[in-house]
Amino acid sequence: MNRLHGTLLAILTAVAFASSGSAQGQVAELAFDSNADFLRTPANIYVGEVGGVGRNSKGRIFVYTRTGHPYATLGDNRTFYRGGSRLFEFDASGKFVGELGQDVYGFNTAFGLKIDADDNIWVVDTSANVVIKFDPQGRIQLVLGRKPEVMAVRPAAPAPPAAAPAAAPGAPAGPPGAGIPGATFNQPTDVTFDKAGNVYVADGVANVNRIAKFAKDGRFIKQWGSTGNAPGQFNGVKALAIDAQGNVYAADLGNKRIQIFDAEGTFKSEFGNVGMPTALCVTSGATQYLYVSHVGDQSGMDDATIYKVGLDGKVVGRFGSAGKLPKEFGVANSIDCRNENELLVGEMSNWRVQKVTFKR
Amino acid sequence: MKRLPGLAFVAVVLAVVLPSGNGVVVAQNRATATNVPVIPHEAVPNFFKNPPGVYTGENMGIATNSKGNIYIYHRAFETRLFEYSPQGVFIREIGRNNYGFAFAHSVRVDAQDNIWAVDEGTDMLVKFAPDGRVLMTIGRREDPVRMLSNMPGAGVYHGRNEKYRFGRQTDVAFDQQGNVFVSDGYFDARVVKYDKNGRFVKAVGTRGNGNNQFNTPHSIATDFQGNVYVGDRGNQRVVVLDNDLNWKTAYPGIGNPWSVCVSGGPGPKNPGKQYLYVSNSWPDGGPAAAAEFTGEIYKMELDGKIVGKFGRAGKAPGEFGTTHQIDCRDPNVLYTAEINAWRSQKILLKPQTTSTN
Q1: pLDDT tens for residues B84-93?
Q2: In 3D, which of A109, A133, A262 has the Cα closest to residue A188?
Q3: CA-CA distance, A7 to A168, in Å (whole number)?
Q4: B199 vs A301: CB contact, 8 Å cut-off?
Q5: What residues of chain B lie within 8 A of the CB of A323, using their CB?
Q6: What is the mean pLDDT of residues A105-112?
Q7: B181: closest CA among B265, B97, B102, B264?
Q8: CB B253 within 8 A of CB B33
Q9: Which residues of A touch B162 (CB under 8 A)?
């Protein structure tokens, strides 16, 4: 059907229906409450599909969301694209405060957001193929990757083309699965940071399947990963998290597992039983846990839950299911767990952020 | 329904074939019903009043709420949803720059006065509370990265029949239990039922002209008994389904139904008698030949008996410049959204003596 998103589509098609999504054996249901009407916006400001949600140290909430319109601009010989996503700020109570990055070049298709230790806001855009760092005042401090210059518009085809791997629009060609050297991304999905401030980018759900590591100043350090299902290979790198020891957890979507690497990319271990891992968040307490959202269908209506997992891969419990009601999750693409008993869960298909609190 | 073969032949000859969006060819036909009484009607002149600098484009959808406020969903620079007072004065805009708006197709108001926008550009239904907050969406806009592979205009009929994705769906209706019915559409050929929480219940229909088949189901309505009326535009009939989407019957003879409306709705159920309005609309290209035998709106009993008709194709007040949606909450006060004339009209029907004698 399409070539641009071929890998992700193939993953979903191949795995979604074969997947029960649930972990083996009995998994404890975690009792929880949710405020699904948490974010409040002024008239005619709309949160759409939530690519990413995060809280800073002061409790401010940032939401990178697909809203407004993706536009095509007709140039002389080429077609350019713009718009489609916005970055909103809310106070701790969910009240709209303002907007960052109005009309910037790379806000097209929101897919991820993280706040670093210094309260900088990092957004990941999966069609502009960029990771953008804003300081707390909203100034752009760093851009990783480059937005493709043009939109690759194809002539009308009489029949859908056969699924074939192809580069993203305007992306440099590279051997499939080999990764693109340096800093050019192909549908990146997530970003995270270690204690030294190094930056790790999940790249991504197209045909690259690598993790790229950059220094704090944006200098490319190294990359690892390729397409496949062996240790150190990926079938869609969807999300990243780093624990207090500096271990890197990578959600390997199509292979239905979490892989764990050291900071240099050396494979350490892996675990499954978390469905199709789509969002990751590691808590910061004395005993750290991972929250992993499972998304079994892209409508968000049939197969979803969120797992709480020990760093050893042992599933502690799970909560929520697919649907549109409160306490149901429609493609949970992002989890904030700065407060481990009060999560923020950003949903794509339900256009909302739920504030999840656990019952003690 | 017996007809002279000659008349049918004439109808075929008079059919106008014109290109529509994405290469779909729409043939608009002269209605075959004969001896239909004409219902006197008039338009309220210049009823809708916009502030300076505010314009509506192609008026695709129109609906009233229980307080008489009117919503118009239209294609301007962007697709937009406007609210008007019962006197036709612009009040405000809802949904500006939300992710579900790209190309308006219809708007309906449910029994709780929530506003449902049907957008065929994003393949989404967006349910707004009366205050404009988004309460629910059904369907999912194509990922922008994937959208590129459909450009320019490479979308085609696919009939993929997915539970939670539409193919240029056209309209929405609700029953007294809050179930949601969607006519879907250009790239699918089916009717889909969801429960009030947006959970899929059932879908019926493939492309064709037999029972349980559709050829561009273009508009949908329900009556208080929960029956579902589908404007099966390409098949020149209104299809009637029961609440579980089982085939009941079809009403031919009224041209190509672009819009259907059942009066009295959307509820709660009231004792008023319900009528079915069906528009044999002037095609959206505005062809001169077709203007001679299209544009009229039929008033029918729910059992299919034609009560009368009114209007004709045209752009003068009281004529219809491609009626795309009708609101008929009050069976004698209709609102029409018109594509070609870039307008909506308030239409007053002269009270009728019942024709069932």
Answers
A1: 999 999 999 9
A2: A109
A3: 11
A4: yes
A5: 197-199
A6: 96
A7: B265
A8: yes
A9: 299
Give long-range contacts, CB 8 A cutoff, 24+ apart: A144-149: A144/A183, A144/A185, A144/A199, A144/A201, A144/A214, A144/A218, A145/A183, A145/A184, A145/A185, A145/A188, A145/A201, A146/A183, A146/A184, A147/A105, A147/A106, A147/A108, A149/A78, A149/A80
Cβ-contact B174, B110 below 8 angstroms: yes
* First vs last C-alpha separation in chain B: 20
Do residues B61 and B324 touch, judged by C-beta distance below 8 A?
A: yes
The chain-wide mean pLDDT, for chain A, equals: 87
Mean pLDDT, residues A219-233 taken together: 95
Where is B8: in which H helix or E strand? helix B5-14
Taking residues A196-213, report their average pLDDT: 94
Count Cα neighbours of B51 within 13 Å in the Cβ-side half-sphere.
7
Contact A67 B99 (CB under 8 A): yes
Note whether ipTM > 0.90 here: no
Write the pLDDT tens digit of every residue in B113-165: 999 999 999 999 999 999 999 999 999 998 877 776 666 666 778 899 999 99
Q: Is the pLDDT confidence value at A336 over 50?
A: yes
Is B149 in a helix, a strand, or coil? Answer: helix
pLDDT in tens, A132-165: 999 999 999 999 998 888 766 544 444 444 433 3
Name residues of chain B where pLDDT drops below 50. 1-25, 355-357
What tokens were used for A145? 């990757």
Determine contact, residues B16/B25, Cβ cutoff 8 Å: no
* Alpha carbon of residue B67 to chain centroid: 21
Q: First vs last Cα of chain A: how many Å apart?
A: 48
Q: Which of B97, B145, B198 sits opposite A5 (nearest CB)?
A: B145
Give the pLDDT score at A157.
44
Minimal Cβ distance to B99: which of A66, A298, A325: A66
Residue A300 φ/ψ, nearest 5 degrees: 70, 20
Q: Is B342 exposed, middle or buried (0-12, 13-18, 19+ CB in 10 A)?
A: middle
For residues B30 and B7, give the distance between their C-alpha atoms in angstroms, rounded to a whole number: 10
CB hemisphere CA count around A322 (13 angstroms): 20
On the 0-12 / 13-18 / 19+ scale of CB atoms within 10 A, A252 is: buried
Q: Please give the Cα distance from B258 to B219 (Å, whole number).
A: 7
